[in-house]
Design a protein that fits this description.
Strand content: under 5%
Order of helices and strands: HHHHHHHHH
Largest sheet: none
Number of domains: 1
Radius of gyration: 26 Å
């Protein structure tokens, strides 16, 4: 079966699923390119960060970095130099912004991946309804070959829906893993920097620092 036959037999549902795949592909490629441009940590980054804080040249250390970790560290250092004492809230605010940027498009991918099989199933059910209507109109005497053809055409949309959904959900999990790694780096960087820089921290803030969803709330 060629692609033209799939679109011809599948009808409107297959065209909608094709639109799903185009939108998902655009989001996935954009996110992969974005993550590939982020420069992560070196092996001895923690020791280098502690030394940079003591030598007062953190900006020079993070100058070669690119990504959410660099933005978080730079924002915290700038806030500290401006006299801000509550660096926990600074880290929480910047971390939330950076996490939102990294996860842009994730919800759309989740919606596409979760609804594609349902849309395919809807197309199959509609096709089966049409097939049985033909049987009823024929008085129950229908050629088995023609009936089989109508059924596989109805099942086609379910297959297309699954073929669209599975890669979308797989890539979504890959992208979520990339975002989680950067989020973990931000958590570690923020905690390490908070240990080195003077700041105010009460009991409530301490709980926030170790909150699962954040540097500090959202990362």
């Amino acid at each position: 079966m060629i692609i033209a036959d799939i679109f011809d037999k599948g009808g409107v549902v297959v065209w909608v699923l094709a639109g799903y795949s185009v939108v998902a592909l655009a989001i996935i490629l954009e996110r992969l390119i974005r993550f590939s441009m982020m420069r992560g940590h070196s092996k001895n980054f923690e020791q280098a960060l502690v030394a940079a804080v003591h030598d007062n040249n953190v900006e020079q250390l993070i100058a070669g970095m690119r990504g959410p970790e660099a933005n978080l560290l730079n924002g915290m250092v700038q806030a500290s130099r401006e006299g801000v004492k509550d660096l926990v809230r600074v880290a929480s605010r910047i971390g939330s912004i950076e996490l939102q940027r990294m996860e842009r498009g994730f919800r759309t991918l989740a919606i596409l991946g979760n609804t594609a099989p349902l849309l395919g199933l809807l197309g199959t059910i509609l096709g089966m309804i049409r097939a049985f209507m033909v049987i009823e109109q024929a008085g129950g005497r229908v050629d088995a070959k023609a009936l089989a053809g109508g059924i596989w055409e109805a099942m086609l949309t379910t297959g297309v829906g699954l073929a669209v959904a599975i890669p979308i959900l797989l890539f979504l999990h890959v992208l979520e893993g990339m975002a989680d790694r950067h989020a973990q780096n931000m958590r570690c960087d923020a905690s390490l920097l908070l240990e080195q820089l003077p700041h105010s921290c009460n009991d409530e803030d301490s709980d926030v620092v170790h909150h699962r969803e954040g540097v500090l709330h959202a990362v």
